Amino acid sequence: xxADHEVVFSLDDETKEKSISVKKLLDxxxxxxxxxxxxxxxxxxxxxxxxxxxxxxxxxxFEKIQDGMVGNxxxxxxxxxxxxxxxxxxxxxxxxxxDKEKWHVVFEGEDEYY
Length: 114
Hints:
Shape: elongated
Largest sheet: 2 strands, antiparallel
Low-confidence stretches: none
Mean pLDDT: 79
Number of helices: 4
Helix content: 25-40%
Structural class: alpha+beta
Oligomer: single chain
Radius of gyration: 18 Å
Order of helices and strands: EEHEHEHH
Distance between the termini: 24 Å
C-alpha cells in the first residue's frame, strides 16, 4: 500500500531527515516520463583492472566485463528536483542563489546498497 511505504530524505550530515509517503508523492507531484540511456558503471572493468590494478570486480563473474552494457529506458514518476524543493526548500533556495544547482544524490536501499 502506497500509504504505508515512505521515502526518506536526509542531508549530507544527516542532521535533517524528512520522509514522505509514496502516496503523498504520487498525489502531490506531477507524473513525468523521460526517455534516457543508461550505461553500467562496470563497463570496461577488465580494462580498468589491466590499467590500474585490482578493482572491485576482481574474483567475481563480472571481472571480464567488456564494453556494451548500455540500455534505453523510460523513467516514469515524479521529478526528484520538485520533491527536493519541497523537502528542503531553504537548502534548494541557497543553491539557486549560489547558482550551483548541482546536487550529489545518493540512493540507498533498505539493504544499505548504494
